[in-house]
Amino acid sequence: MFEVGGKCLAFHGPMLYGAKVLRVWDPKSRKVSMMEDGQVVTVEDDNDEGVDNVPSELVEQECYFVHYQGWKSTWDEWIGPDRIHEYNEENLALKKSLVEEARNAKRLQQEQHKKKKGTGLGPGRRSKHDIAKGITAGKKAATATNGVSNANNTTTLGNPEDGAGRTWSQSGIGAAVGSSASQFTAPRIVLHIPVKLKSLQVDDWEFVTKDKKICQLPSPTVTVDKTLTSYEEAMSKKLESPALQSQLSEYCSGLRLYFERSLPILLLYRLERLQYDEVLKKQKFKDVSFCNIYGPIHLLRLLSVLPELMTATTADSQSCQLIVKQTESLFEWLVVNIDDLFDLQNCRGYYINTSSQYEGVALGM
């Protein structure tokens, strides 16, 4: 579908950008196609020093080395089929709508901040103009998606079927994380992300991609596991039916499993991958799950891409609707507890600066 030298649109963070395909990896032949002296040539990935090796998490699927138009070449990277899309009118319209929605989210955030200065993000935090150009919250359209969010926030779900649906933990989590959603024809899923959570993703994107900061690990506030445990405990008290409590428990367990498997593939920005590799090497984290290391902002990234992950499973419509209901309930709870979970008063302490040496290694990976 995408050829070397061709134009495309690619997700970086939750936004869609114009890009050019520099190389194409074929997992069957284990070769990379690239442009050389005006001609497309094919080379062995492992035997050519001039070729950026394909990341291990993408090596089993067709992927593309892209250059984002107007960006420095240090941002060139390999992306999977879930992040690359045709350069056509439909996707250009999607790109435009993401920018507009980001602007609206930022505008609303600023209005709320003026009304509640005491509980806002703090003075000086929003010093950069036009952040909307680089982010929208939780966006990554199913099969029009990025590594960190959902493109439309509104997608469609098929009609519910009669009978008890399968739970999502039985619906091929491994396949969902390891495959491109474009290979499936399952109905897409609707998730409505609250504006306050979208604003958090705006800030998250800005800190990592513009300020070159990364999240402190282990999470200085609460971890993914503690967040889900607190949510389950709070909601369980409101549920009288054992069946509903069981559904809640399974949902939270499913999220933990999704998080563990999708973190290195979908939930990290390029700048964070070196930190992830360092975590794997540290002895103190040897037997610690990612859910007990990473914090709620990474959980929010996962929730944003759930529509794509679920589309890539064999879950039936009734199961999908149940997950949508549970996720939107979790969104509401996150908003209610947003100050405690995301530490808005001291959010800069949640992120740490990176050295120029770290940036050089991380962006060169």
Automatic annotation (TrEMBL):
One GO location term (cellular component): nucleosome disassembly/reassembly complex
GO MF annotations in UniProt: histone H3K36me3 reader activity
MRG domain location: 179-344
InterPro entries associated with the record: Chromo-like_dom_sf, MRG, MRG_C_sf, MRG_dom, MSL3_chromo-like
UniProt domain MSL3 chromodomain-like: residue ranges: 20-99
UniProt cross-references to Gene3D superfamilies, sorted A to Z: 2.30.30.140, MRG domain (1.10.274.30)
Bias-annotated ranges (Polar residues): 146-158
Gene Ontology terms: biological process: DNA repair; DNA replication-dependent chromatin assembly; negative regulation of antisense RNA transcription; nucleosome disassembly; positive regulation of transcription elongation by RNA polymerase II; regulation of DNA-templated DNA replication initiation; regulation of RNA stability; transcription elongation by RNA polymerase II
Low complexity bias: start-end ranges: 133-145
Residue segments, region Disordered: 105-170
Segments traversing the membrane: none
Subcellular localization(s) per the UniProt record: Nucleus
Broad class of where this protein is predominantly found: nucleus
Protein family membership: Belongs to the MRG family.
PANTHER family: MORTALITY FACTOR 4-LIKE PROTEIN (PTHR10880), MSL COMPLEX SUBUNIT 3 (PTHR10880:SF15)
UniProt name for this protein: Chromatin modification-related protein EAF3
